[in-house]
Design brief:
Length: about 500
């Protein structure tokens, strides 16, 4: 069908076009999508067997939907992707404020225009990208904002009395007729505003300043809410909750591989960063493990949640830390180092809500602790366990490395801004590290090996086999007892 040629109501009727509600649109296009084995929710990872099937069931049931979950769980992203289930274009009565369907008008304006012009009524075509409206629920939202109010200027210009319904200025919801309408953080909406939504959801009645209008709006409502909101700021009033067909629980990624996919997709990186900085897989794993540690930390408020944005911004910071070193050292290319992880601390401290104990510790200390715990918990998946207490006769795979630090006379320091060649030379000095790598991770690529070796050093620090000192220019590693004995 060539839509550009259809510009009047008569031509629309002749074309055989049939109107359908937005919920029918979503349902029918979803059925087609499922039959064709085509995914609508592209770029959403970790929800394939949980959230997405529930969302599809809700669409098939033609329900209004409440997405309930902590921050950074792609609730708004899911709602936006539902646009892909709408027809590409729909006809609209030209000049209508509420996107009137020419074959099923609901406003006084459209009805009078059709009565006057009949089949010559002009129509326009609305693309699905225009059929999405969103409102963040804040305490200052009024009924006038979302439903409408009397417009005295319109009354004066048209010389109408306030008893005439043409003096009404429609709010966001009537103007989003035949659209997907998202209200974010629904519990933050005042109870009286939530009450105003009752009839719109169920019967299509709206009341504005005493006007009781039958305006059967055709809409797909999607609400989002954070469980924390129910206790800290507000709640969803029961009658409104009763009118929302499906409540779907969202969640954070359940494994590191899924989390990595999300971070790689969402991180906004410069072309120079991606071309000149190599990121070992272990570094990506470690970054996601830090976020997993944050979600389990006793110092961080679990009710507030730890957003997926933490790993995204931390990854961006990690690349920028390496890029800054690259610019200073004059090298053309570099690889992420474990010391670069100190650069992600601002991304962590800005994204987490600390409980009282966390405030006492201090945000930076908590962030450093998360990095340490991530190293400690990830280490056994690559190398043998480091035992805290060992018998004197018992040999450890790490004895040679610890002995190396015990016997060196100079301090072993890795400066933050050291160039790539000197950095590798420093790491290569610790010969037992190469032997450990060959024995337990023989398939490690050369480009990744230096990060893995540094990872071993940091793990030995976390298990109290070495000590580490952070100072302005870099990081120093020592045998924890060597200094004490030499002092004696």
């Amino acid at each position: 069908m060539n839509l550009e040629k259809i510009t009047t109501l008569g031509a629309l009727k002749e074309s055989g076009y049939k109107s359908k509600s937005i919920k029918d649109e979503l349902r029918e296009n979803l059925i087609t999508s499922i039959l064709n084995k085509k995914s609508v929710f592209v770029g959403i990872y970790g929800y394939e067997n949980t959230v997405i099937p529930e969302l599809e069931r809700a669409i098939l049931s033609k329900h209004n939907i409440n997405l309930l979950g902590l921050r950074g769980q792609a609730k708004t992203r899911l709602a936006r992707l539902m646009l892909n289930l709408l027809d590409e274009y729909i006809p609209v009565v030209e000049g209508s404020e509420v996107n009137d369907d020419p074959l099923n008008p609901i406003s006084r304006f459209a009805k009078e225009l059709i009565n006057e012009k009949g089949d010559k009524t002009p129509i326009t075509w609305m693309h699905r990208s225009e059929r999405f409206a969103e409102k963040l629920a804040t305490p200052d939202v009024t009924v006038a904002d979302i439903i409408g109010d009397v417009d005295p200027i319109k009354a004066a210009n048209l010389k109408l009395s306030y008893a005439d319904d043409r003096v009404i200025h429609y709010g966001m919801i009537p103007r989003a007729n035949r659209c997907i309408f998202v209200i974010n953080e629904l519990p933050d909406l005042q109870a009286r505003i939530q009450v105003a939504l009752f009839n719109i959801l169920q019967e299509g009645d709206i009341q504005i300043r005493g006007f009781k209008m039958r305006l059967p709006l055709d809409m797909q409502f999607i609400f989002t809410a954070n469980p924390e909101d129910y206790t800290n700021r507000g709640s969803i009033v029961t009658p409104l909750k009763d009118r929302i067909g499906s409540q779907i629980l969202t969640h954070y990624p359940e494994d590191i591989e899924t989390a990595k996919l999300i971070t790689q997709q969402e991180a906004k990186l410069d072309k120079r960063q991606t071309e000149n900085i190599f990121v070992p897989e272990l570094a990506k794993d470690l970054l996601e493990q830090i976020v997993f540690e944050a979600r389990d930390s006793e110092y961080i408020d679990a009710k507030s949640g730890v957003s997926a944005r933490l790993s995204i911004t931390a990854f961006e910071n990690l690349l920028s830390t390496a890029e800054r070193r690259l610019l200073i050292s004059g090298d053309e290319k570099t690889t992420i180092r474990l010391s670069d992880f100190d650069g992600i601390i601002p991304a962590i401290t800005g994204k987490v809500e600390l409980v009282y104990e966390g405030e006492q510790e201090g945000a930076s200390v908590v962030a450093e602790g998360l990095i340490g715990n991530a190293i400690k918990n990830l280490f056994p998946t690559f190398f043998p366990e480091i035992k805290k207490l060992e018998k004197q006769t018992e040999e450890s795979p790490y004895d040679e490395i610890i002995s190396w630090f015990f016997n060196i006379n100079d301090d072993f320091e890795i400066l933050d801004e050291i160039n790539e060649e000197n950095y590798k030379t420093m790491i290569d000095k610790i010969a037992p590290l190469e032997e450990l790598l060959q024995k337990y991770q023989p398939n490690t690529r050369k480009q990744e090996s230096y990060f893995v070796k540094e990872f071993v050093l940091w793990a030995l620090v976390e298990f109290k086999k070495l000590s580490k000192f952070r100072y302005a220019e870099g990081t120093q590693f020592k045998d924890p007892y060597g200094n004490f004995i030499s002092g004696l």
